[in-house]
Each structure stands twice: as structure tokens, then as C-alpha cells.
Amino acid sequence: MIETNEEIIPTGLEEKQYSYLNLGPTHPATHGIFQNVLKMDGEVIVESEPTIGYIHRAFEKLAERRPYNQITPITDRLNYCSSPINNIGWHMTVEKLLGVEIPKRVQYLRVIIMELARISDHLICNSVIGVDTGALTGFTYIFQQRELIYEIYEEICGARLTTNIGRIGGFERDFSPKAWEKINRFLKEFPEVMKEFEGLLNRNRIFMDRTIGAGGITAERALNYSFTGPNLRAAGVDYDVRVAHPYSSYEDFDFIIPVGKSGDVYDRYMVRQEEMWQSLSIIKQAIKKLPEGPFHAEVPEFYLPDKQEVYNNMEALIYHFKIVMGETEVPKGEVYHCVEGGNGELGFHLFSDGGRTPYRLHFRRPCFIIYQAYPEMIKGSMLSDAILTMSSMNVIAGELDA
Amino acid sequence: MEAAAQEKIISVINEKFEGEIVEAGMVRDFFTIILKKEKIVDVIRHLYNHTDTQFQFLTTLFGVHYPDQKQIAIVYQLHNLVTNQRIWLKVFLPEENPQVKTLTPVFAGANWMERETFDFFGVQFEGHPNLKRILNVEDMIIFPMRKEYPLEDQTREDKNDLMFGR
Predict the structure, then answer these.
(1) Secondary structure class of A3 (helix, strand, coil)
(2) What are phi and psi of A315, to 5 degrees?
(3) Mind listing the pLDDT tens digit for each residue in A140-162?
(4) What is the pLDDT of residues B15-35, one digit of tens each?
(5) Do B136 and A53 touch (CB under 8 A)?
(6) Looking at the complex, does the CB of residue B136 fall below 8 Å from at least one CB of chain A?
């Protein structure tokens, strides 16, 4: 990082002149649509002002008009790189409100899906850091693995990107043998590809020169900015929701929380890289310990009954009708549930007044909170570092703008 | 949260700000304290600095509109990362001209959260460095998350509740 000082400007100029540069709104390096007006002193950034909100879709307002099971499609458009985490986080929030006990098997299956989603999220982020340093190879190479994860989703729920995976109370169906086959194939192939990917970038001279020391943030500032997730851990704070507030049986698994030191681009990259290995180990543990049992909890008010039941059983017909029409009522109350999303603590504040829709739903979107530190992180650095900083923070436009 | 921890937090607040607490109690697993709005930032700063509480992490901040009480609630969720305790602090502001002091001197991260709350609920945060709309367009004249602005056009007849048997 280069400090701005007066000496950069040649003497003899009457007054210091700055140039202004628009980074975005639709620059490929902005990973979506948002604008940064940079005040430049040569190639050094003096100040910047981000403008977001270009794809604001009023999620919170939409949620106030929808029955609980219909909110799932809203959540998976937040962080579209790891939509199952959002879906399952939302389901767990409603289950917390209803006070439902979830079978152990469902919890383990959820862990498997969430860790797969975390891997795909981190894969994209890390390979994009590579792209922004000029190494396209890793990005194209790693996409095959992301494709495998998407195929697993496809076997489980039928969708690939915006998944709507699962239901309130569990999954809509048990994992098929084909899905297990795909998961096993992924577990077998992924480590080799990861090792090759790491060989490409981890100790690459150009990559290290470009990333070490760029876009750093101290632990103190990161906490003050309410950072969570890999960005906070890269700064040296070992806060992970999976350990601090365990959900979905995360306490049953052994894993370590990787932490960095300086909070720069390289540390963020390395933390994500290590987290993927940890996720892989969690998936393996979960498959090994996977208990037998039902794949959904007993919540007939929220769980579509079997079609044969609907034809033959009056109660099942009533529940089917009520779910489809969104007539189910929930208890009054306020709950907060958080999961470790791809970017950090993804929280759902749910206020229910006992009606068929939430009274108020607030998403704590980690990316929205992280991105406000961006002007401070790039101040005094070069333009090329600003691009790298942005991609290493894993800015997801859907999550930033809601 | 255990009763002892709750009492400790209340005593820390009462130490310096006697009479600021309106109500305190558990909301499910969250210890919630409703405070008067005037000194909310000072209370949070006190909780931040005090060795017994150390709520040094602002998880989130948002508003909730209660039209029948003509009030807007601001919810602050604080987190003590050392003891892993989380609390909700709430203040209630009048619906007409809601004003509260800004939290940005204590938490830099409160900046955009407050801008978002302003954008959606029209809450004026006094002393905020850059209080303007963040997600909506700047020339918008309403505060869309308030309950008087329903999501769908109420004059439409093809989507009203009657069609769905409600």
C-alpha cells in the first residue's frame, strides 16, 4: 500500500489537482451493480464514495405479504452463490418460532448441504480473486467442481442456482441414491482439484506480490465495522457462528476455525481456502455419522403431505389446502436466528403477530455491513488493489442490496 | 441468559443511568431491554466500556413500525464476544418526526444500518455524517417500510383478499 504524500505531485503546480473516476456501476470488477466514485491522486485513491441500491428488490417488504413457506424463494436470492444456506437458515428461524424438534438425520443432511454451499461460495470468491490478479485458469478450472455441487442440488431439489432447498421441518424428499453417488464423486474428485488450484495460486510469486499487504484492515477496525465471516477471521478474530451459537448439530463435528493475521487480501484468500478443507472434513464426518430416521419433522401445518395421503385422508387434504393457500397461522413472538453464511453471520429477525405472514422480517445481510468499510480499506492504495480488495471481500450484489 | 447475567447488565446500566430502563425481560432466548430514547447512545457507550459487560460488537440495527401505537421501534442487537452474550436494546420513537442520536461515534458499522433505517422508516439520526437514502432513489418522498404503504396497489381488484377467500 502506498501512502499519499505531497511529494507525488511535481512542484510548480498552482494547486493540487485530483481526478475523479467512476468504478462501476456496470464495471466487470464490481461483481454486480454498484458504483464507486474514486477521487484519485495519480493512481492513488484519496477518497471514495460507494453508491449501492441499484438492484434493491424490497425483500423485507415482500416478506410482509407472503406466507412463511413462500418466503424461501426470497431468501435464496440474497446470496445466490450459496443459496441453500439462506434457505435452511430461514427454515430454522421459522422452526425456532414454532418450537419444532428436528430429527437428527435432517440436521446432518442440512449440514452436508450447507457445507457444500459454503464450498461453492468460497470457490467462486477465491477463483475470482485469481481472475482479478490476471489468472483466469483457476477460475475456469474450478468451475467444473462448482458444476458438480450444482448437480448435487439438482438431484436433491430440482434446481441449481436459486435452489429453494428443503421445507420448514426438513426436506421435501430424502436424498436419492443418485444424489449420494454425486456427493461421493465430489468428495473423491474435489481434493485433487483443490490441490492443483492451490498449487497454481498459493505460492505464486505474482499472486503473492499483488495480494499481500493490499486492502488490509485491523482486527479492531473490523470489529468496529461489525465484520463477520472470513473477512473478520482474516483480521485475526476467531468468531464463527457455527461455534459461538451452534445450530443444526454443528457441535457434533470437529473442525478448526482458520484465522489470519493482517486482514489483507492474501489472508482472506487463505482463510477461505482453509475453510473449504474444513467444510470437506465436516461433510465426511456427517456422512460417516449419518443416523437413520425420517427426513422431515412432524409439522403438518407447514409440510406438504404425501399425495396419496391427500387423496385418502381428510386431515391431509385440509393441511394441503391450507399450505397451498397460505392460511396457516403461527404463534406470536420475536425470534432471531443466525447461520454462518458464505460472508458471515446471516441473521433473520422475525417478528410475528400471529398472522399468516410475518409482521416484520429483517435480514442481517453480512455483505451489506462489510461493504461500508470499503472506502476505508482502499484509502491510500492503488486502483488495482481496490479491485482486488473488492473481490476478496466477496461482495454479492443480491446480498448487498437486498 | 441466566438471571445473574441479566441482573448484572441491569445493574451496570442503573449504575450510571438510573431510571432509563422502561422494561426488561426475556423474549424467547434474547434478553431485551426497552430504554428511553434520550440517552440510548450513552447507555450503549457505557455498556461498551464497562468491564462487566463489554458489548463491543453491534450485530445489527433496524426499525419496526407499530402503526396502532403510533410508534417506531429501533432495535439494537449487541454482542459480547468474550462471554458470548447477546442482547436486544429497544427504543420507541413517535411515528411523527422520529428522532434519535446516531450510534456512529461508538460503532463505525452503524453508519449504513442507520442510513437504511432512515431510508425505510424516516428515522432522523441526529449527528449522522451522511444521512441520505441508501437503497432507494433519492427523490423518493415516502418511507416505504412503514405500514401505511402496502406492498400491492390496494385499488386493484384482481388481487384482493376476497379472491382468496379471506
Answers:
(1) coil
(2) -65, -40
(3) 888 888 899 999 999 998 888 88
(4) 888 888 888 888 888 889 998
(5) yes
(6) yes
